[in-house]
Amino acid sequence: AIFFGRFLGQVAAQVLLISSSLIATLGMGWWRQGHLSLAILEATLIIAINLLVVLLPFIALMAVASALAESARLAVSLVIVGAGVLLGLIQWAGHYLPVLRQIQDFLPGAQLTELLATAGWSTLQLAWLPVLQTVLLLAVGWAVMRSKAL
Q1: Of 143, 140, 131, the residue nearest 57 (C-alpha)
Q2: Global model pTM greater than 0.70
Q3: Alpha helix locations (H) across the chain?
């Protein structure tokens, strides 16, 4: 419960930050144009959902790191160094075996280039990968927390 509570707390904080940023942007647009169309409100909702979906695996990754580490500073260091080493190893291995470059397509944030090429509600077709990554990372974090409790 503690693990998932911390994860949901971080998700709630990100939702608050995304929402406040988009509301401020809408306010500026309304102040400048004097009105907001339904298309603008729909685009804002799509942007908010996509931002949250893209952030979910990173929030889950930090939750796993905080479950593994003894302190928040160590968890951040673990993710930064671990991600750098992992990306370096994938690049190095991909240089010698080009087939391994496809592993990069399954890392968190990999769908961002495809996401930028799509528009509207069709962007949610790409949400399966970050949602799957989030579920897998949360399962790993839950297993880590459970093993620590034993």
Answers
A1: 131
A2: yes
A3: 2-33, 38-68, 72-96, 112-117, 128-149
